[in-house]
Design a protein that fits this description.
alpha/beta, Aldehyde Oxidoreductase, domain 3, Pyrimidine Nucleoside Phosphorylase, Chain A, domain 2, binds uracil, 453 residues
Length: 453
């Protein structure tokens, strides 16, 4: 039963800097989900939180209330349902450029005995979205029925799909109102929004990839570190053991960015056609943390050996193929990706204005170049061109000039390619320096582990 306290009295309390009780937060969030709070009240509440913040207990209560505002998935059985025979694990990233970790990590964890019901999002701003990438695969259905989703998780160990209307509905409304009331950049609102959706998937453990650097959502190392720590603390206090890794996004994580080109990269890594690289290194570390948290390995070296074995044996690739086929994509995608993945009509190299080494990347600008090619959206309902993007993007410290371009552009037209080429030259700084003069960023900068209390 709802208390008699008016929502405006609670908004007033937050406005005046008071901490809200868990009960007050639960009722406000229920009012957001069922529409009994008006848009004006939700906006005012968001602004009060933005200006005065929330303490740890409030942020945990807000996260739990968002999680519980709709369906919370349960995987471990009740009654006649035997439940899944392994831990339910997931990963979330704050987003970046060339960040196709989910496409590799989900099947890899499944091949190691975990179950990954991954609910992913679309591209946001300059960052790519896992759903947009998967939709480059002809036939792939990001919105299967609940039964199909559950069956696929059980049988393939992994299913990557879109958010349903039943999952964390309070966040959908709150986020839309934050977006138009200048209240997106608030730590408790960001944390509860990200975690409310993820924890509604019924996870046994979560790993968060929080990016830092010129392509990251948070502008500074300090802000990214605070986000990583808060996420790990709040998720664990809400009952889901969570490890947050702070990883570098001062250059694209993979040497490509776009939708079909990133699916192509994921297939190359899963099948062993391509080995090593920053993307695989970050994915392997995130996956090892999940195996430890899910008790599928008892030590880091055991987790890493299990992962290496399941990648080399083709088991991870096989899980990816099963997921794609189970969601309506081609059964022989791994063998005939060039036949199925869309190809851009214009493909051309872009050379630096002068030879030298890459000394700095404006990674956000690279992501925006992909958006402008048509690989992302300017407005929420824009269609995406899955074929466009960048490949062979030179890395920090790499020598370019002569035979080595900055990248290859995949475009829908010569004009688009020309515009992207200028953007690339502006986004990738090249200077005449020796290899040792370029300081390479540390890829994994922090690991923050939190057990559930
Ligand atoms: N992603 C989300 O899901 N919510 C936020 O508030 C920010 C990023």
């Amino acid at each position: 039963m709802r208390s008699q306290t008016l929502p405006q009295e609670r908004i007033r309390a937050k406005r005046d800097g008071e901490a809200l009780s868990p009960e007050a937060i639960r009722e406000l969030v229920a009012g957001i989900a069922d529409g009994s709070l008006s848009d004006a009240q939700v906006g005012a509440l968001a602004m009060a939180v933005y200006l005065n913040g929330m303490d740890a207990a409030e942020t945990v209560a807000l996260t739990e209330a968002v999680r519980d505002s709709g369906e919370v998935l349960a995987w471990h059985g009740s009654g006649l349902d035997p439940g899944l025979p392994g831990p339910v694990l997931d990963k979330h990233s704050t987003g970046g450029v060339g960040d196709l970790v989910s496409l590799v990590l989900g099947p890899w964890i499944a091949a190691c005995g975990g179950f990954v019901p991954m609910v992913s999002g679309r591209g946001l701003g300059h960052t790519g979205g896992t759903l947009d990438k998967l939709e480059a695969i002809p036939g792939y259905d990001i919105a299967p029925s609940r039964e199909r989703f559950r069956t696929l998780v059980r049988e393939s160990g992994v299913a990557i799909v879109g958010q349903t209307a039943e999952l964390a509905p309070a966040d959908r409304r709150l986020y839309a109102i934050r977006d138009v009331t200048a209240t997106v950049e608030s730590l408790p609102l960001i944390v509860s929004s990200i975690l409310g959706k993820k924890l509604a998937c019924g996870l046994d453990a979560l790993v968060m990839d929080v990016k830092t650097g010129s392509g990251a959502f948070m502008p500074t190392h300090e802000a990214s570190f605070e986000l990583a720590t808060t996420i790990a603390d709040v998720a664990s206090r809400a009952g889901t053991p969570t490890t947050a890794l702070l990883t570098d996004m001062s250059q694209p994580l993979a040497p490509c960015a776009g939708n079909a080109v990133e699916v192509r990269e994921a297939i190359a890594l899963l099948t062993g056609e391509k080995r090593g690289g920053r993307l695989l290194e970050v994915t392997r570390e995130l996956a090892a943390e999940l195996l430890l948290a899910g008790k599928l390995a008892d030590r880091r070296d055991a987790a890493l050996s299990l992962l290496d074995e399941r990648l080399a044996s083709g088991a991870a690739a096989e899980r990816f193929a099963r997921m794609v086929a189970g969601l309506g994509g081609p059964a022989d995608l791994l063998e005939r990706y060039d036949h199925y993945l869309p190809q851009a009509p214009v493909v051309r190299p872009v050379y630096a204005a002068r030879a030298g080494r890459v000394t700095r990347m404006h990674t956000r600008a690279l992501g925006l170049a992909v958006v402008e090619l048509g690989g992302g959206r300017r407005a929420p309902h824009d269609a995406i061109d899955p074929a466009v993007g960048l490949t062979g993007i030179a890395a920090l410290g790499e020598a370019v000039g002569g035979e080595r371009p900055l990248a290859w552009v995949y475009a829908a037209s010569e004009d688009d390619a020309e515009r992207a080429a200028s953007q690339l030259r502006a986004a990738i700084e090249v200077n005449d320096v020796a290899a040792g003069d370029v300081t390479l960023p540390t890829l994994i900068q922090d690991v923050i582990r939190r057990e559930a209390p």
